[in-house]
């Protein structure tokens, strides 16, 4: 057991100095002055920030790595130049896909799905700040996030059908119905039409809408609020929000009982109690 603990500790590391190659990565401090909030900016504004084979892979690897981060408590995803993400790059992805064999295509579709899996598995809450175009794989990155803030100009489209593909892509057929309902999801996936910002907010896709110039700061403010909370407990919440989709009610209640008992052993739980007794605001440290 001690060897396992040492191995896990060996993998723990800070991500404040991570150097991204295919998007921008920056880290800001929380209200207590600690590096805590990681911001991913998709940065190809001339093409509305499409993804490439390389950016898919690096995003997947970054979210996988954040499981071991010692400093990142929340993550914000956004796009440069007034758009979020236009999906897979037509010339750098879609064109080459038409020349690939079935095993090669399956390698690609599994890789894109692995990005969503990595986002759901990393313990940090993820907030997408979405302006302008949010389409295809970009819409899936938004959907895989824990929370989404949009603008009145945001146009979201799961447009796989427009390029002759199924709406079943990167988990869309399981994630989207749970977010907005089966009938609404079916319409969007069969037609590929744009979901307006107003529809997105009414249907529960967006947590809130903000002016274009304010959406990123609103996302970072929310990220800061969450980062100052009990981050170990946040990780437990995220894990169970994901796992309980496949549980019955009795199984889910038991899983939550076990999880909460573990959280009650943390120092943050004791800090909250001591702060309440002293009539102070608790300062959580994530342990």
TrEMBL record:
<dbReference type="Pfam" id="PF00378">
    <property type="entry name" value="ECH_1"/>
</dbReference>
<dbReference type="InterPro" id="IPR018376">
    <property type="entry name" value="Enoyl-CoA_hyd/isom_CS"/>
</dbReference>
<dbReference type="InterPro" id="IPR001753">
    <property type="entry name" value="Enoyl-CoA_hydra/iso"/>
</dbReference>
<dbReference type="GO" id="GO:0004300">
    <property type="term" value="F:enoyl-CoA hydratase activity"/>
</dbReference>
<comment type="similarity">
    <text>Belongs to the enoyl-CoA hydratase/isomerase family.</text>
</comment>
<keyword id="KW-0456">Lyase</keyword>
<protein>
    <submittedName>
        <fullName>Enoyl-CoA hydratase</fullName>
        <ecNumber>4.2.1.17</ecNumber>
    </submittedName>
</protein>
<dbReference type="InterPro" id="IPR014748">
    <property type="entry name" value="Enoyl-CoA_hydra_C"/>
</dbReference>
<dbReference type="InterPro" id="IPR029045">
    <property type="entry name" value="ClpP/crotonase-like_dom_sf"/>
</dbReference>
């Amino acid at each position: 057991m001690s060897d396992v603990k040492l191995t896990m500790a060996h993998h723990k590391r800070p991500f404040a100095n991570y150097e991204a190659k295919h998007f921008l990565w920056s880290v800001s401090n929380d209200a207590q002055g600690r590096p805590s909030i990681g911001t991913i900016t998709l940065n190809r504004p001339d093409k509305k920030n499409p993804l490439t084979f390389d950016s898919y892979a690096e995003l997947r690897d970054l979210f996988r790595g954040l499981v071991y981060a010692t400093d990142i408590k929340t993550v914000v995803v956004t796009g440069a130049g007034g758009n979020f993400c236009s999906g897979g790059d037509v010339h750098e992805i879609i064109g080459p896909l038409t020349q690939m064999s079935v095993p090669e295509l399956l390698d690609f579709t599994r890789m894109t799905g692995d990005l969503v899996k990595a986002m759901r598995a990393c313990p940090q809450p993820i907030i997408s700040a979405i302006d302008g175009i949010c389409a295809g794989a970009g819409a899936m990155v938004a959907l895989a996030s824990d929370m989404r803030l949009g603008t009145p100009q945001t146009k979201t489209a799961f447009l796989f059908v427009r390029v002759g593909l199924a709406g079943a892509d990167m988990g869309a057929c399981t994630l989207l119905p749970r977010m907005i309902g089966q009938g609404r999801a079916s319409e969007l996936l069969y037609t590929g039409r744009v979901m307006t910002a107003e529809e997105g907010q009414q249907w529960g896709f967006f947590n809130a809408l903000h002016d274009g110039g304010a959406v990123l700061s609103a996302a970072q403010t929310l990220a800061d609020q969450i980062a100052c909370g009990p981050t170990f407990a946040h990780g437990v919440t995220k894990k169970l929000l994901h796992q309980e989709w496949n549980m019955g009610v009795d199984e889910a209640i038991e899983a939550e009982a076990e999880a909460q008992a573990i959280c009650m052993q943390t120092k943050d739980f004791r800090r909250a109690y001591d702060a309440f007794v002293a009539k102070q605001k608790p300062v959580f440290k994530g342990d």
